[in-house]
Design goal:
Helices cover 28% and strands 34% of the residues. With 232 residues, the chain is an alpha+beta fold. It has 2 domains: 64 residues, Arc Repressor Mutant, subunit A (Orthogonal Bundle), CATH 1.10.10; 156 residues, Chorismate lyase-like (Chorismate lyase), CATH 3.40.1410.10. Strand 8 and strand 9 form a beta hairpin. The chain is elongated, with a radius of gyration of 21 Å. The protein starts with 5 loop residues before the first helix and ends with a strand.
Length: 232
């Protein structure tokens, strides 16, 4: 097996220092030239490692001052669907989820409006809490139209997240997002293990596959542990 590129060795070293807590937020890392000398590589190679970590959100450059560890929060793309398990494992962290609710229910007026069905229509409903390194970072409260994903409730969510199940069954062709700031109700505060006064972000997401409206989800994040980004 060939050795990894030299820049990856520098990245791995810096990530170990960050994840272990040896490099705390706002810690200034060595300048590129000193990193290059330490790892016996060119300055261009050291620059590549730093650029990657800046792009991934672990480091921030301050022109004329240096490069520093960010006050890293979990981050999710706003205008794309990414599997939260992948996001967390790509950060080198441990992902887990807990299923709070898995049921067939009758659509309320609000749910019916969001799923474009009649009130009282049979729908699938799940609530999951997604955690990073044992800390809850998202509540996923989701309704699914069983006409398009009839096996949804039979899924093993310890093996596949709802996102993975839906994408596998019905490739997503259209998204609709709305984001709002909210205060948690008692259940949300309990599930996220936060105080009732903690501000949260809530993303309302609807997804289509071709002309079919597949899913309506309310994704709630503790504001001090998560941020949403948009990319163009």
């Amino acid at each position: 097996m060939s050795a990894p590129p030299r820049y990856k060795l520098i990245k791995q070293h810096l990530l170990r220092q960050i994840h272990s807590g040896a490099y705390q937020p706002h810690h200034q890392i060595l300048p590129e030239q000193q990193l290059a000398e330490k790892f016996n590589v060119s300055r261009m190679t050291a620059n590549k490692a730093i650029r990657d970590l800046v792009h991934e959100g672990y480091l921030i450059r301050k022109p004329g001052v240096g490069t520093f560890v960010t006050d890293l929060k979990a981050e999710s793309a706003l205008f794309e669907i990414r599997n939260i398990a992948d996001e967390i494992t790509e950060r080198g962290h441990d992902y887990a989820n807990a299923v709070v609710c898995r049921e067939t229910s009758m659509a309320s007026e609000d749910v019916a409006l969001q799923l474009a069905v009649k009130p009282g229509t049979r729908v699938f409903h799940t609530i999951l809490v997604h955690s990073e390194n044992g800390i809850p970072i998202q509540i996923e409260d989701r309704y699914v139209n069983p006409d398009w994903v009839p096996h949804y409730l039979d899924s093993d969510f310890s093996e596949q997240t709802p996102n993975q199940v839906l994408v596998a069954a019905c490739p997503i062709s259209r998204l609709e997002h709305r984001v709002e700031a909210v205060l948690p109700d008692a259940l949300v505060a309990e599930l996220l293990e936060i105080a009732a006064s903690t501000p949260c972000l809530r993303m309302i997401r609807r997804t289509w596959s071709d002309a079919h409206l597949i899913s309506y989800a309310r994704l709630t994040y503790p504001g001090d542990r998560y941020k949403l980004r948009s990319s163009t």
